[in-house]
Amino acid sequence: MKKVTFLLVLVLILSLALTACSAPAAEAPAGEEPAAEEPAAETEEVVFGVFEPLTGAYAAGGAMELEGIELAQELYPEVLGMPIRVVVVDNKSDKVESANAATKLVDQEKVNVVLGSWGSSFSMAAGPIVEEAGVPAIGTSCTNPLVTLGNDYYFRVTFIDSFQGVVMANYAYDVLGAEKVVIVQDISNDYAVGLAKFFKDEFVRLTGDEESIMSIANYNTGDQDFSAQLTNIKAMNPDAIFAPGGYSETAMLVKQAKELGLEAPFLGGDAWEAAEFLEIGGDAVNGVVFSTFFDAAAPLTPESEIFINAYREKYGEDPASVTALAYDAYILAIDAIERAGSTDPEAIRDALAETVGFDGAAGVVTLDANGDAIKNAVIKTVENGEFTYLTTISPK
Amino acid sequence: MSINTFFQHLSNGLALGSLYALIAIGYTMVYGILRLINFAHGEIFMISTYVVFYGVSMFYLPWWVSILVAILITGLLGIIVERAAYRPLRNSPRISVMISAIGASYLIQNLAIVIFGGRPKSFPIPDYFNTVIQVQGVSVPIVNFFIPVITLVALVVLIYIVEKTKTGMAMRAVSRDYETARLMGISVDNIVSITFGLGSMMAAIGGVMWGLKYPNLIPLIGTMPGLKAFIAAVIGGIGNIKGAVLGGFLLGMTEIMIIASLPDVTGYRDAFAFILLIGILIYKPSGLLGQDIGEKV
């Protein structure tokens, strides 16, 4: 008897929760009539679904991107006369959770467009789900080519790793004069493995020597101890080390390398740019060089100025690259909705696919046939514990 | 592999192994007395690192005071977890207590995410510990000297407490039979609390050493070290303090040597630890130093 009562109560609570969720959509027509000059709207509001790693190994990445989206929403709270509601879901730095998060956004929240995520692996996990649901997604800082490849519904405001890998291989070869390089990659991270491959291909092409990549060492996301890999690398005595991976693992990697007396310079990609990289790495990370998207010291468009000023006012410091990209994903979604003149996901998708010369905070966005942005890369280093701008490289 | 590289690997393995050993001591002690696998051990370990972080960065305590505070708070936390999650289930089937332990572990972990936030923090390291010493071409960060020494001191102190003091005698009595121990006038509740407090303080010392070596703090930091310490304890014979130290050394050394000699399989590093666990459970379930004590009825 007791059990039956308990079940009954459970069912009641669940059904209450469900009706509570669907209530806003149901009572929409009963509300005030939309103004006459507004286009016929399917709903009263436009919903942007955001999925980001807010906990787990890449929480800092998600937090930085969320800042960009929040800032964009403060500046541009409306589209086509309707308020924009942002729904944020945590993908917990996990591929399976990313798929769950995307499903929640398209099935339960019925979002018009999906934004995110930091981390290519997470975007790739969400890809089939948004495609199936017919909802367009705009990637923020996910740079692995496979995110958009063969997926008509995934776009992104960032360049991809085939470009980033080439940029860093050229830097290693031309600027550092490196002949022999070792790669250390996070084997469980699609972004790192992809970037390592593009770096390797270009570096081998530049040197014309298959042996110029002396070795590829691996680790897993969440590893803390790299002493065995680094001891082996030290014995090889490379000219440089290319180490694509997350900010916290790499900070520890570089720190332990310095402790072992490994003097070769470290090169890497955009995922290093987080305050945590500097805090955890301390003095050890001075001198590392990496490619990224944007620097506040070199604004690229009029929108960059608006973004940088608003960010400085709100947070009192300079924004990170990925914050600018998340901001761009948001304003590109608005731009596409305005060009489509509709909030229908299919119409937004078609408008996104035709994006040409869109002024974003992190540069001008022109989407190619795959939905990837063709834009400049910025090279940065760390000097006295701060990220410092070195140069800008344009795609050839 | 040159001789220098080999000794470098040996030194790395020793440092990692003694760190596992340090965490495993607390794990195994609690099991030895209560026959309870305290899955929350890794989370208690994690809390200690955060206490040091906040002690230094928020309350501006001197570094060594923060450590003392962390050890005390963590010991208290262990006692609270025991009161809240294990004591009410003391006469329940062992499986209930184990599930409660897993629950306690997730609760602490998720509370930590809510309270401390998901973004990583950087463990405060005094400059002294950033020194690296060169011995015959082998680079040894100074913290790598401290860890084995502290592990051995902790081992000796705990063995002394368990084997030579009255409290230790009571612990051993409780580990054999609650009821009889109670009839002999031992306060079982107090002994269990002391055991948990001690075990958690060991976790705190392990946490501080871990932070000094790997200064990347996230609320999930305790999970993997907790599991590795559990494996180390099982390898050595769970319940046996000396066995935990031996198991920790073996596990750390094996991990480093496998990566060093077979770089291609590095991605399976954690898998090797678990394979080792399965192997031990199949071929020598009582562990290397464990002896078979008949199940209590």
Report on the structure:
Chain A is of the alpha/beta class and 396 residues long. Helix content of chain A is 44%, strand content 18%. Chain A has two domains: 191 residues, Response regulator (Rossmann fold), CATH 3.40.50; 131 residues, Response regulator (Rossmann fold, 3-Layer(aba) Sandwich), CATH 3.40.50.2300. Chain A is built from twelve helices and 15 strands. In chain A, strands 8-7-9-10-11-14-15 form a seven-stranded mixed beta sheet, with helices on both faces. A six-stranded mixed beta sheet of chain A has the order 2-3-1-4-5-6, with helices on both faces. Chain A starts with a helix and ends with a strand. With 297 residues, chain B is mainly alpha-helical. Chain B has a domain of 202 residues. Chain B has eleven helices and four strands. In chain B, the strands form two sheets. A two-stranded antiparallel ribbon of chain B has the order 1-4. In chain B, a hairpin with a 2-residue loop joins β2 and β3. At the A-B interface, α2, β8, α7, α8 and α9 of A face α1, β1 and α10 of B.
Quick overview of this protein structure:
The complex is a heterodimer of chains A (396) and B (297). Chain A is an alpha/beta fold.
- Termini separation of chain B comes to 54 Å
What do the pLDDT scores of chain B average to?
89
- Could you give a short account of the major beta sheet of chain A? 7 strands, mixed
Shape of chain A: globular
The portion of residues assigned to helices of chain A is 40-55%
* Number of separate strands of chain A: 15
CATH superfamily of the largest domain in chain A: Response regulator
- Estimate the mean pLDDT confidence of chain A: 87
Choose one word for the global shape of chain B.
Answer: globular
